[in-house]
Each structure stands twice: as structure tokens, then as C-alpha cells.
Design brief:
305 residues, alpha/beta, TIM Barrel, four-stranded antiparallel sheet, globular
Length: 305
């Protein structure tokens, strides 16, 4: 039995991620503030706000967790000393070298690689691998299965970076001792809430994380980083977000997919209730259309195709 983080609010409309290069902050929970200061490829982009008081220097004093939405190695290098707490997305535009990985670790910054989304954006059919696992497929509705199997971009071999670079960069972060948090960036194309997290855990294992480290990245580590003291561990007094599985995920991380029971705040959940309804499916289809336009625009701007 393993502690699990609370499921997201599945009734809320999806919020699109800003395109690379956007400096607009995205919506965030009360415990976190998200900023996107250095996501554009040009090296002359700087964090938003006055240079003597970047967001990361101010917000932690208010008890907030600062999450930087970054898509480039140069951007990560710029914000390491800004006082941020979390970097969302591992960059794939270049090699994240050992020196930078060690700076991230020394600064105590956590990284959410979101490999499950990145592999689909770069043309790898990771969503299809989720649908192909009967342990997950049985709890997916038709709409979710369609999103997973049709979400891979056609960008592979068209000037976009290879997905392997993402895993190489995460491996460097792991080797440097950086805190890794498991997250998918769902509902981006090729991902769905819940099921894609299992894929993320598998991908983290391919980057050198042990099953125990991957489980920690999905439970105790995010609870600690986001100051959620009441969850993340199976212990008296903790919120009872629990999952009972068949098999031992400490030896095979994919055993997390063999779900027998789920409790949320101590209440037994019906997995069938998490199948997307018609309204949610329509919202997600509209979201996919917007993301497709963003990806096409970024590809045109960066690679001229």
C-alpha cells in the first residue's frame, strides 16, 4: 500500500500552458506561484520584473512556492540564483551539463521533468504505451484512450530535438542529487490525468532513478516541496490518500498500475467515476486544438517548418 497525492480537480476547465517565450504567469494553487521568465530560445531574455527584485527573491518571503516554467537550458541557468523553488519541464534544446546540474542541486531547486508530455511533443508515442497496458486500459474511457493514442506530435525527424535528450538531461539531474518531482503536465496531448503519471514513473526509472526514488518523487517529495505537511506518507495523523496494488513497486515500478483499491482522504474511490464525461471531453478537445496551434507556431519560429 502506497501513499498517493490527491487527484486533480477534474471538473475544472483545462488551463493551457503558455507557449515557449511567454512571460505571462499561469494559474497556480494557493501554495505556489508560477512564473515563466526564461522560456524563449533567445539568450537575451531576462526574468520578468526589476533586476534587483526578481519574483523568486520576493515571494518566498510571503511563504509561497515559486515555480518557474522554463523550456531552455539558458533559461534554467538564468534562474538558478533567483531564489526559485521548482523548475517545471526539463529543457531539451541543448545539453544540461554537470556544472549546471550541480548548481541546481546546491540551490535546493526541485525539477518536474514532465517526460510524459515531452515524449509526445517530440513525436514518441508514449500515450499509446499507456493504452497498451491492460492494467491501465481497463479504467480508461474511450475519450481518454483516444487522447492517449492520438496525442503524439508529428515533429519527430522534422528538426525538433530527439526525445533521448530529455532523458539524458534528467539523468544528469539525478546523478547530481537534484530533487525530482513526478508530474505529467496533463492534459497536454498524449496525456491524461492519473494514468499518465504511471508512465512518468516508468520514464523516471529509465533516467537512473530506483523504484523507491520514483515513488518518493510522486508522494513524499512533492508534499515536502509544496509544504503539504499533512500528506505524502503513510503514517498516523497523515491524510489517508492511499493506493493498494498487486505486486511490489519497489522491485518493478510498473506494479503501481496493478491497482486494487484507492482511498482519497480515507474514502474508498470508484475508479470508474474518473472516466471523462462528455463536457470534459469537449473541453479537452478544445484544449488540444489550442496546443496544436502553439506547437506549430513554435516549430515555425524555431525551425522554419
Amino acid at each position: 500500500m502506497w501513499p498517493s497525492m490527491p487527484a486533480p480537480d477534474r471538473t475544472a476547465p483545462p488551463h493551457p500552458v503558455p507557449p515557449p517565450g511567454s512571460s505571462t504567469s499561469t494559474a497556480a494553487p494557493p501554495e505556489a506561484v508560477t512564473t515563466s521568465p526564461c522560456s524563449a530560445p533567445p539568450a537575451d531574455r531576462h526574468p520578468a520584473g526589476p533586476p534587483d527584485a526578481p519574483p523568486g527573491r520576493v515571494l518566498p518571503e510571503r511563504g509561497r512556492v515559486v515555480v518557474a516554467h522554463i523550456h531552455s537550458v539558458a533559461g534554467v541557468g538564468e534562474v538558478v540564483s533567483a531564489g526559485i523553488d521548482v523548475v517545471a519541464h526539463v529543457p531539451v534544446d541543448g545539453e544540461l551539463d554537470r556544472a549546471l546540474a550541480e548548481r541546481i542541486a546546491e540551490a535546493g531547486i526541485a525539477v518536474v521533468p514532465t517526460l510524459a508530455t515531452i515524449e509526445n511533443v517530440l513525436g514518441e508515442p508514449g500515450g499509446a504505451a499507456v493504452v497498451g497496458d491492460p492494467r491501465l486500459a481497463e479504467a480508461l474511457g474511450d475519450a481518454q484512450a483516444r487522447r492517449l493514442t492520438s496525442g503524439a506530435s508529428s515533429s519527430r525527424g522534422q528538426g525538433m530535438p530527439p526525445y533521448s535528450r530529455a532523458e539524458e538531461n534528467v539523468r544528469r539531474l539525478v546523478d547530481a542529487g537534484v530533487t525530482i518531482l513526478a508530474g505529467t503536465d496533463a492534459p497536454n496531448p498524449g496525456t491524461v490525468f492519473g494514468a499518465s503519471l504511471h508512465r512518468e514513473l516508468e520514464l523516471l526509472g529509465r533516467c537512473g532513478m530506483t523504484p523507491a526514488q520514483a515513488l518518493n518523487a510522486a508522494t513524499a517529495a512533492p508534499a515536502r516541496v509544496f509544504n503539504l505537511a499533512d500528506r505524502g506518507h503513510a503514517a498516523p495523523g497523515q491524510r489517508a490518500d492511499l493506493m493498494l496494488v498487486s505486486g511490489d513497486p519497489l522491485t518493478d515500478i510498473t506494479a503501481t498500475r496493478a491497482i486494487e483499491r484507492i482511498w482519497r482522504a480515507g474514502v474508498l474511490c470508484d475508479r470508474r467515476a474518473f472516466v471523462a464525461n462528455a463536457a470534459e471531453t469537449a473541453d479537452l478537445d478544445a484544449f488540444d486544438a489550442r496546443v496544436a496551434k502553439v506547437v506549430a507556431a513554435v516549430r515555425e519560429r524555431r525551425y522554419g517548418r
